[in-house]
Design a protein that fits this description.
The protein is mainly alpha-helical. The chain has 22 helices and 10 strands.
Amino acid sequence: MTTEVDMLSLEPEPQSAPGGTMETAQAAESTEQALVRRIPWALAVIGCCVLAATLATWPLALNLPSSIPLGTEHEATVGLFSIWTLWWTANGLARGFAGYWDAPFFYPNAGVFTYSEPQPLTGLVVSPLWAVGAPPALILNVALLGTLALNGIFAYRLARALNVPRLAALTGGILMVTMPFIAKVEGVLNLTPVFGILWVLDGLVRFGRSGSTRHAAWAAAGLIVAFLTCQQYTLMFVPFGVAAGLVALAQQKFQTRALVRLGSATVIAGIVILFVALPAISLHNELGLTRSDEVVRKLSAAPGDFVTRPEIAWVNIPSQSLEDTGGLFPGIVVLVLAALAIAYGLGDVARRRWTLFFALSVPVAAFLAMGLNIGVAFFQPFDVLRALVPGFSELRSPFRFAVIMQLALIMLATMSFVHFQTIFRRFGGALIIFLGLVAALENLALPMPLTTIPSSPNSARADWVRAQPDVKVIAHIPFAGGLRVSDYEIDTWRMFAQIDHQKPIVNGYSSYFPPNYTDFQLAMAVEFPRQDLLCTLNKGLDTDTLIVDRSWLDQHASQLDPFKTFLNPIYSDTQVSIYHLHMNDTDCTSQGAHVSTSASNLDIFNRGSTVRFQPAR
């Protein structure tokens, strides 16, 4: 039986003393002394994981208020959207989460905040920083570094649950912080948290040994946290979580009491998750949001991707890859240590079940990561999963299953250290530290590419817009001119400014786009100004304000001349000109207005059943 008097330790629970109060007092004193002894080590673990996160993202620590990491992203699009997402949750908290899912972009579409990862827990944790006026880059960086440190802390905790000694467990925590897949995606904040998955596994390992309600609840709490930090990873983890639950129940010999406790905890966690997920499920089903075979196949790993490193890795053996799906190599040292853990662990009665669980998770996760790129004849197993398992039809990037593969390998590598201490008693600790550091150094991605972010979203222009009661809905001109992530950077900068002015905008960026939005977007990018497009904006989308980039205006001013009767200039600076847009009904029923602007025909509202395009991120 074990106790969890602090978040990091795994120590024997004091035995109940028979008899009188003296024995009870001595037992209580012993518990307090044990807790006091653990505190320095707990602080050391936290400190080491924070330090590892700092070094793994270097030189980010020197630029916390002014820059954000890109990882393998080539533009600021996703990072800016992550900042906006954190702000929107803080804003929602201040409003009691009224209208939380109806975010003010892609106006007037409803529920657009369900189109991407909302990261509500991450946003809540850093929300006080918005209240004190912290720079947006600092807020995102605190979230990132905290997430990386928690990845290491919970890897340490899981290792301790597996009876790995403290030093070896800490080394495993550092390996988790420097996981190469996480380094690859550090420009996408919602893809960095794996501590929720580790939390679930920690609870299940402990439950397998104790069968206690406390550990079942701990695993269930981890599942909720995993979902609230990364819904995508949680969905990917479900098959592995079910398998881990069966391993834990097998340890309990499937006793009725254990089944009831773990089952009840899982049901409660499922209800909480369903409460959060239900708006997205309902809306996505209504709209028929799904991922096309073409997109899923493109973002499925190929066998060669597992033997390449991320393009930002500082070790280039094996070679680096520029592909979205590339760079999935887990590291030479980690692979060797994992192989040793399997060789020794299968003969270790105490860890055999969990060694087998992690060992089998590696090829299964790799298989799933290949998605639609693997099959027999016309049969593709991943396509069956997409058809049968709820949620899998919305998984766009199967290659991200590699995060579970690398997590399992790191846990195996950590478990291998147990045998080093047994075999090399005198030098075991030093050898563990050496191998752990080599494995972590091998997988570093340094220097981390950074991009500069303004210290505040506030500006004279945004302040002016916010102060205008007549400005209700804004459309930014020009619209994004393509369908790649880089094309939408312009719109995420506009969302960044929206943090200040807080007015709804027709433009936007997310993982999903409203039905038929891209047809309208590209028409606006290529063919604006046209009277029918102005009618669509004003009468169909309730847009009353156009914010026009001066760089675009300098080249198209003469084309706006025929429409001056509809456009009243109300603001201008060196970067934009702002116009009030107003059209009469007769202006939009004339022969020149070729497109109906009624909501039923416009169909860029939340109607329709297909999404023609999903961006690569």
